[in-house]
Amino acid sequence: MQCPRCDSNHIRKNGKQRGKQNYIYADCGRQFIEYHNPKGYSDEMKRECLEMYVNGSGFRAIERVKKVHHTTIIFWVKQIGRQLPENPETTEIPEITEIDELETFVGSKKTRFGCGA
Questions:
Q1: 43-54 and 59-66 are packed helices; what angle lies between their axes, rounded to 10 degrees?
Q2: Are residues 47 and 32 part of one domain?
Q3: What is the pLDDT of residues 4-58, one digit of tens each?
Q4: Are residues 7 and 25 in the same domain?
């Protein structure tokens, strides 16, 4: 292994951390764990969740089926949405529009003060 900071190959053991062997580069002092297991979901799981969303499943329905939290799915949808072009290529205005779960209606909230007022 080569250190990304100092390009050294000189490593030594440096105790254990959370039950895993900890190592240190002798030249710069950077520490690392040899067998790092990356966190996160696989690209396949992301693709399946996004495909379910495109096919009409709601965020919480996908959460129940795939066991992925709905806010994570919302984050993935927004992430993909940023990659889309800003303006649609067609100039035709649709007659019917569908609003998804991300849109909310903000109505006027009537506040009542005192009792019975």
A1: 140
A2: no
A3: 777 778 888 888 887 888 888 888 888 877 765 667 899 999 999 999 999 999 9
A4: yes
